[in-house]
Every structure is written in C-alpha cells, then in structure tokens.
Amino acid sequence: MIHASGLRKSFGDFEAVRGIDVDVRRGEAFGFLGPNGAGKSSTMRMVAAVSPISAGRLRILGMDPAVDGPSIRARIGVCPQEDTLDTELSVRDNLYVYGRYFGLSRHEVRERVDELLDFVQLTEKAGARVEDLSGGMKRRLTIARSLVNRPEVLLLDEPTTGLDPQARHVVWDRLFRLKQQGVTLVLTTHYMDEAEQLTDRLVVMDKGLIVAEGSPLQLIREHSTREVAELRFGVAREGESHAGVADRVADLAERVEVLPDRLLLYTADGEETIAKVHERGLQPAATLVRRATLEDVFLRLTGRTLVE
Question: Where in the numbering of this chain does the ABC transporter domain appear (predicted)?
C-alpha cells in the first residue's frame, strides 16, 4: 500500500526526514512512534501527497505522488493532528459538504453521512453545531469526515492528542473496527500505550531516522526486560540521589536508567529486585513494579523519554 525507500524531507538547511525505508501492507495498522520533532508528521504529509519529497522514492497505492497526487488523494483518508472542522456548520453539514468535494451524488452522500454518524456514535448530535461538541466528539467527527470517500488507506496524525482517557478509548474502538473492515491504518503517536493497543507493526523514529522496527511485542522483548522496578527518592540524603543510588544497585538489574524524578531498574522480577534494594539499607519514598512498555524501548534506543 505504501513503499518508501531512502525517503527524505528538507526545509532549507534542516532535514526533518533523513532517509527512511517503510513498507505498509494491505489491511494492517502501521505506526510511527516518537517524540515531537522526530519527523513523523513530515513523513505523513509526504504519504498524504500534500508535501513533495526532497529525495528518495515514494509510492502510494502503486502511484507516484509527484504525478498522481489527485488520484492518490481520492483513495486515501486523512485525519490531521489539528481538527479543521467548520465550527459554524452542523455536524451533519460538515460531513455532507466534505462528501460533495469528492463528487458524491446528493443521495449517496446523505446515505454515507448517516452511516458515518452511526459509526462514530454522533447520530444524536447530527443537528448540533461543531463548536458545541466536546473534544472527543470533534475528534470522532474528524475521523468520520476522513472516511467519507471510503478510503483504502486512512492516515491519522496524533489521533487522540488532548483527549481524556475515556474519549481516547472510544476513538481506539472506532479505529479497531475500521481495521476489522479491512481499512489500512497508518498513524503517528507519541503515546506508547496507543501504539501498543492499535498497531500490528511500527517504527520508532528519532531525529528524522528510524531506530527500530517490529511489532510492539517484538520490540519490547528485543530491547527491554519483562518488568521494570521504579524507585523514587524524596529529599536526597547523601548517597541517595537518583544518580548516587544507581551505582549502588547496578548489579541488581540488567540495566539501570536515571531519570530526573526516578530510577528505573530493568529486571525479570521487579518485586524481588525492590526487596534487595531494601536489604541494602536504601529507603525509596515510593516504588512501583510494572511491565515493560514501548517507552522503555524508546529510552533504551535514544536515551530520552517519549514525552520530552
């Protein structure tokens, strides 16, 4: 569905995407994971055929966006990072007008609007003005709008940024249903739990480069341990700052990461590791044992967290 080889994007002297290789298969959910500024959105704009590539090769649905841009855009859907809805129109009219842009007949677009309102659970809000919707409802409407033309590929740039947890889960459910219907999903996110929930396969991007690729489970198994013990120390006493403690517990874990507010010990058994920390006379103010996540993978690969 999407093939990129040596893909680059430059803005003057700044190279946002620095030569990446990507292949997205039909029917899969593919993710670009990374912090802000990693090059994800620049890549998505090239894939959406709205930003020309600077170098390399890019094919979307077998077509060259440099010459087949309109044909590509007619067959894909785009859900941008920022909602671009017409706030003065009703929910229904936002979808109706957008459907007419694609040349759908009045009868066809009315049927499609009803289908989409039901799909994103906004039927009861059909007559409401967009400005009266909650953030989660606006996001679902934006997704519905991107589906008006029955796209083969749906591009989603940070689909749940700014939403509360409940609204995020509603959006996740709608996207999962789309995948079940055979729509190919390509999404960017800096939420590691979102990438784990939604994607079959993903690439981790940092500073315009791909630093890892695989399924979420593969990446966690390859680059992290089964569990992580988090230690937080309060007012630092001598030898008990996070950096100071790291040397004293380094032999208790496969890897130790020092963050400004906590110490991460990567281990197969977090509870046992914390017990050994206490045996050494160390008294953290708070402890937590959790399973490893994609954030730990990113920290291992880049030396910084996803939210930086």
Answer: 2-232
Angle at 13 between CA 9 and CA 16, to 5 degrees: 30
Alpha-carbon dihedral sign for residues 3, 190, 84, 11: negative
The pTM assigned to this predicted structure is: 0.86
- State whether 76 and 32 are in the same domain: yes
Question: Which of 85-94, 231-240, 282-291 is least confident?
Answer: 231-240
Give 152's DSSP letter.
S
Residue-wise pLDDT for 179-208, tens only, equals 999 999 999 988 888 898 899 999 999 899
- Report if residue 96 sits inside a domain: no
**pLDDT for 307:** 47
Which residues span the domain enclosing 198?
A: 2-88+130-215
Q: Which residue has tokens 């906004």?
A: 122
Cα gap 211→204, rounded to integer Å:
6
